[in-house]
Amino acid sequence: MEATMTETATAGKNQKMEDRLIPEKTIGEVHVDDARMTAQGVNVYYGDKCAIDNVTLDIGVGQVISFIGPSGCGKSTFLRCLNRMNDTIDICRVEGEIKIDEDDIYDPRIDVVSLRARVGMVFQKPNPFPKSIYDNIAYGPRIHGLARNKVELDEIVELSLTRAGLWQEVKDRLDQPGTGLSGGQQQRLCIARAIAVSPEVILMDEPCSALDPIATAKVEELMHELREQYTIVIVTHSMQQAARVSDRTAYFHLGTLVEVGETKQIFTNPVHELTQDYITGRFG
Amino acid sequence: MTDVTVRGLTPEEARSRVEETIAARNSREVRFQWIGKSAIGLALGFLVLLFAAIFTNGVPGLFQHYVTIDVNLDRQRLDPKGDLSEESLYSGEAERVALESLYAAIGNPEGRTERRAARGILSTGSSQRLIAFILDNPGLVGQTVPVKFALDDDIDSFMRGFISRETPEADRRISDTTIAFVDRLSANGAISYELSDYLFFGSASRDAEMAGIKGALIGSILTLFVCILIAFPLGVATAVYLEEIAPKNRWTEIIEININNLAAVPSVVFGIMGLAIFIIIFGMPRSIPLVGGIVLALMTLPTIIISSRAAIRAVPPSIRDAALGVGASKMQTIFHHVLPLAMPGMLTGTIIGMAQALGETAPLLMIGMVAFIVDVPGSVTDPGTVLPVQIFMWADFAERMFVQKTSAAIIVLLAFLITMNAAAIVLRKKLERRW
Questions:
Q1: Reported ipTM
Q2: What pLDDT was estimated at residue B376?
Q3: Among the four B65, B235, B245, B247, which has the fewest Cβ within 10 Å?
């Protein structure tokens, strides 16, 4: 009994210590020269609870930036702010300013539909529509009117699947349900679906957490190829993955952006104690 | 803060304690299985009893006795205007011709008593039947041909053995003379036992042998048609709005509670409301399938809304995310993804609601669909009745033959219901998609 008490107290003390450790200002360079998206002083609340506390961060053109941090640190929440997916949660409230190419995305004049066409998203669990492979890819271009005719639509579908490295595997069964593919193929289908609407930014929320190592390797390879055309933001729990795929890395802790920098620097020479503890596996 | 130190159990102690509880656990499991099995057995038993009761009465109810006699289709007597029109035939002597043919068939009875006894053998609808026969076969006019007439319901009951010869003459509904005539017809092989055409093609009638369910069946179909046309779109729209669009606040909560409460309101209350609003305030006619359909639609709406909401809620949020993620608007997400996936569940709910509406009697009594209407309704604004109300009315009649017709009508109603449910299952299987 006593032992438990002491433990709780220690945990509480640790918690407080961590809180004290959280820096007033993010360590590292939050701004980049050539920014696709900029976030300035973003706060997110779920009801009364503050999930994101004053985050400022630029996302550079043609970069892969990964968000890492322990569970519940707000990295996914911040990611979902970038294409306003948090709008679907009633109690969620976003403060601050997020811009894409100088357009404020929370401006009432900005249509959320056009924003999401510019900022695509890939989710944690592969979620193809229960439709054919073809229709999965063609859905976005269709609703946005991207193809003038069937030939153009076919081209978009082929190109998207080719870019996602799936064309060779599915070209003979485009009319079969997308849900019939394997997990890794489904996730690549979802990536193909996201790039079919030619977005500027692709957000990936732990895209490999439901995949086996082989499928993960394929998706990572794909990210390498996609970085040439798209800006990619990836949330991941795998530090090896962050190290492998990203140019910059941002470390979140309890809703705060603690440290951001070149991936190499973050992983070899982290400045802040919390970042250091996390990447060396001390907690998380 | 107590100083009690818990000394852990050794594995041996733990095992012996577990052993002690296992017997009790297992016997509880066996007992529970038995309770479940006997409950199912009881339910099955009642079901068998129900079907046995309905079918022993209902299957004979699907048949009735006919007598086939030679009729001389005398043109002058039957068709005074000579144009073979319905009007002309009805002004002719069809009834007398039919009766005289019967007299001939039973050896020309003498005297008033004998003739009266003979007259009771044929159904009162025999003249209509003869006219219908001529209209169907105008080429046979002028010849002597065999025509099949229905037997009067009392004679039919006698043929079935419900009226016994041993009963003293004064105590039974048919006289000895009539029985003698029937025996003669029977001996000549003129009487046959066949599938009843009146049951399926006849309408309401006070004469049991001519009573049929056609009017009620058409009335039921029209009423359900109105009902589904109103209830399905309204129900689905309500469910979509409440589930996908409405903000979750006090008002939507109150609406939700009230919808759930409406599902538990006794159906007769909906009938009174229909009477007060549609008939008294709006001045719509009584007994029409339109009002019946509206009332039943209001009654089934809560069922449809509740099941539709459940179906919408069962659509995985990941599909919504996927659609929103590629930039679909809220409406596109709902109409392209959520509704198609929720459709099987919605249809199941709707068909359950419709089945409920099909079997409903009480609210329709309130709006006058219990009236005695001989004509088959041709549209939703013609007065009519529905199957369960017809069954209710027949159950009220005293004639023995109505008892069987009631059960026969119940069989038809059940067949209708089973068809609807089968359609629901087929539809669901067809529309169901895996995700």
A1: 0.85
A2: 87
A3: B247
Size of interface A-B (CB pairs under 8 A): 74
Q: Which residue from B minimizes the CA distance to A199?
A: B326
- What is the chain B residue with the closest CA to A126? B318
Structure tokens at B356: 């409920």
Torsional sign, CA B146, B151, B157, B158 = negative
DSSP 8-state assignment for residue A238:
-
The per-residue pLDDT for range B230-263, each reduced to its tens digit, is 999 999 999 999 998 888 889 999 999 999 999 8
In chain A, which residues touch B (CB < 8 A)? Answer: 1-2, 83, 85, 88, 90, 113-117, 120-123, 125, 127-130, 139-140, 143-144, 177, 179, 190, 193-194, 196-197
Contacts of A15 (CB under 8 A, 6+ apart): none
For residue B71, the cross-strand partners are: B145
Domains of chain A as residue ranges with CATH: 25-126+202-279 (3.40.50.300)
- Chain A's closest residue to B434, CA to CA, is A130
Question: Which chain A residues are closer than 8 Å to B325 by Cβ?
Answer: 83, 85, 116, 120-123, 194
Spatial separation of the C-alpha atoms in residues B95 and B72, rounded to whole Å: 13
Identify any residues that bridge with A119 across adjacent strands, giving them in sequence order.
A201
State the DSSP string of B212-228.
-SHHHHHHHHHHHHHHH
Phi, psi for A83 (deg, rounded to 5): -125, 25
Find the mean pLDDT for residues A22-41: 86
* Under 8 Å between Cβ of B81 and B111: no
Q: Out of 2.60.120.260, 1.10.3720.10, 3.10.180.10, 1.20.58.220, which CATH number does the structure's domain B214-431 have?
A: 1.10.3720.10
Taking a C-beta distance cutoff of 8 angstroms, is the pair B426, B345 a contact? no
B155 vs B186: CA distance, rounded Å: 12
Query: What is the identity of the amino acid at B319?
Result: I
What is the average pLDDT across B314-322?
A: 92
Q: B325: distance to nearest CA of chain A, Å? A: 5
The more confidently predicted of residues B170 and B233 is: B233
Any residues with CB less than 8 A from the CB of B297 and at least 6 apart, and which?
Answer: B226, B227, B228, B229, B230, B231, B234, B357
Number of residues assigned to chain A: 284
In contact, B153 and B209? CB cutoff 8 Å: yes
Question: What is residue A129's three-state secondary structure?
Answer: coil
Q: Of A85, A130, A193, which is closest to B324 when you measure between CB atoms?
A: A85
pLDDT confidence bin for A7, thresholds 50/70/90: very low
> From CA A203, how far away is CA B160, in angstroms rounded?
81
Let me know: does B300 contact B390? Beta carbons within 8 Å.
no
Alpha-carbon distance of B255 to B301, in angstroms, equals: 13
In chain A, the residue whose alpha carbon lies closest to the alpha carbon of B244 is A88
Decide: A244 and A223 in contact? Cβ < 8 Å. no
Measured distance CA(B11)–CA(B311) in Å, rounded: 50
- Please give the model's pTM, rounded to 2 decimal places: 0.81
What is the distance of C-alpha B91 from the center of its chain? 37
Nearest residue to B89 via CA among B47, B149, B45, B130: B130
CA distance B368 to A88: 50
